[in-house]
Each structure stands twice: as structure tokens, then as C-alpha cells.
Amino acid sequence: MAKEYDNPEIPDVRTALDQLTVGSLKQLLNLLPDESKPTRKADCVASIEPCLSGEKLKALWERSDDPQQIAVAETIHSDKP
Fold it and tell me: For 11, phi and psi rounded to 5 degrees?
């Protein structure tokens, strides 16, 4: 069962992405199948956010290999927030 952390500072994906630098967002964009390469922070966030929910998230998970899925599982189920 997934753990829920009560962190009022990061209530959703958009807020978490907004806290990253443009450089970090561009690194994330390079990992996603989206071909767009925005340069402005707001555009980077707008490109990444949809990939982290719904069917796009499911497709990203299915595209991941076993070591990647294991790393995600360890992160989700870790006792460390």
C-alpha cells in the first residue's frame, strides 16, 4: 500500500515542479517521450506535468525497464519522506 505523506509545502505535482530550476526541468524533459523542448520555466512545467498523471504516466511506467521500476518502488515504499 502506498504511503501518504502529509507535506503541505508540496500538495501536487505542479507545485513540486515549480520548485525546481529550469536546468532541472530540462533534464526531466530529456527523460520524457515528449519531443518539445521549451525554454521558459512555465512552459517546461506545462510540458512535464501531463506526463506524470493518467495514461501518460502508465505508458511511462510500462516503458521503464525492471531496474527503473524497482528504483521507483523503493522510493515510494521508503520510510524516508
Answer: -80, -20
- Domain that residue 61 falls in: 13-76
What residue has cell string 520524457? 32
pTM of the model: 0.70
d(CA 4, CA 76): 9
Contact 32, 51 (CB under 8 A): yes
Domain count, the chain: 1
Average pLDDT over residues 32-39: 84
Q: Considering the domain boundaries, does residue 8 fall inside one?
A: no
- Distance, in Å, from the CA atom of 80 to the CA atom of 57, rounded to the nearest integer, reads 23
CA dist 80 to 1, 65, 76, Å? 15, 24, 9
Residue with cell 527503473: 68
Q: Is residue 19 part of a domain?
A: yes
